[in-house]
Automatic annotation (TrEMBL):
GO terms for molecular function: S-adenosylmethionine-dependent methyltransferase activity. It comes from Eubacterium plexicaudatum ASF492. Keywords: Methyltransferase, Transferase. GO terms for biological process: methylation. This is Methyltransferase type 11 domain-containing protein. Residues 42-134 form the Methyltransferase type domain. CDD domains: AdoMet_MTases.
Length: 249
């Protein structure tokens, strides 16, 4: 199943991306009122960053991912969980049954969907009173190293934009008319990351790849140069996990 955004060449680098803040995930699960054994659908599950957290909580997870390479990595990473099943599908057409899930999540994937169509699909597969949630990990752009990297991106990509991934999703969800009031959750985390893993992780950024085009390798080389100039084996990277969630009407 193909999508406009092809992550095949980014799949291995995606494994280097950081986890979501556990405090934000805990708040989301508490707000949704899910319990161990409930069913969740993780849409655009990628390499299982969010799927793993749902499984570790004790949920039965249907992980939906359109890209073969990403899905293969996700299958490997969740092999120890019998209650995680993987499927090919997209946010607008998951292939899941009607009225099945207590929770439907989009971990860093809602922005690559037609959001209104994805909301319709989420409502379709949610049980009455089930919860939709979308989330992203946002680097703290006031951190000195992250500011240097932002300067690289803006210097070499004309009109660089994060698209919808850094937007407030409240109005988009409200406009659908399919959910009750939006609940916003956030949590911060400082990841201490091998500098090499952080550098390699940049090769997974589809937003940068699409906008930089033939400059993508050059930009990654500049990021490597900037990080290596710090002379540190490990670097601390502050993130904020931002979650927008709403209950199905």
């Amino acid at each position: 199943m193909k999508t406009e955004w092809d992550y095949t060449q980014l799949a291995e680098a995606y494994l280097k991306r950081p986890d979501y803040a556990q405090s934000a995930i805990d708040q989301m699960l508490q707000t949704a009122g899910v319990k161990k054994g409930d069913e969740a659908c993780d849409v655009g599950a990628g390499a299982a960053h969010l799927t793993l957290k749902l499984a570790e909580y004790g949920l039965k997870v249907c992980a939906v991912e359109p890209n073969d390479a990403m899905r293969a990595n996700g299958v490997k990473r969740t092999a120890q969980f019998e209650d995680v099943k993987w499927f090919e599908g997209v946010g607008e057409d998951t292939g899941m049954d009607n009225d099945r899930f207590e929770l439907v999540t989009f971990g860093s994937s809602f922005n690559v969907c037609n959001r209104q169509e994805a909301l319709k699909e989420a409502k379709r597969i949610l049980k009455d009173g089930g919860w939709f949630a979308c989330m992203w990990n946002h680097r703290d752009l006031t951190d000195p190293l992250q500011k240097e990297i932002e300067d690289i991106l803006k210097e070499h990509i004309a009109d660089y934009s994060y698209g919808t991934r850094r937007e407030d999703q409240t109005e988009v969800i409200r406009e659908s008319g399919l959910f009750h009031d939006v609940v916003y959750v956030e949590g911060t985390v400082v990841h201490e990351i091998l500098a090499e893993d952080f550098i390699e992780g940049w090769k997974s950024h589809g937003t940068v790849q699409r906008q930089s085009k033939d400059k993508f390798d050059f930009i990654n080389a500049k990021i490597r140069e900037t990080v290596e100039a710090k002379g540190e084996k490990y670097i601390k990277v502050p993130y904020t996990t931002r979650i927008w969630m709403a209950q199905r009407k």
